[in-house]
Amino acid sequence: MFQITRRSAKLFSTNCIALRKYADSSNVATLKGGENILYLSLQKKFPQAKEIKIKDISGGCGAIFEVFISTTEFKGMSMVKQHQLINEVLKDQIKSMHGIRIHTEIPAENNKSN
Question: Is the pTM of this model over 0.70?
Answer without folding.
Answer: no
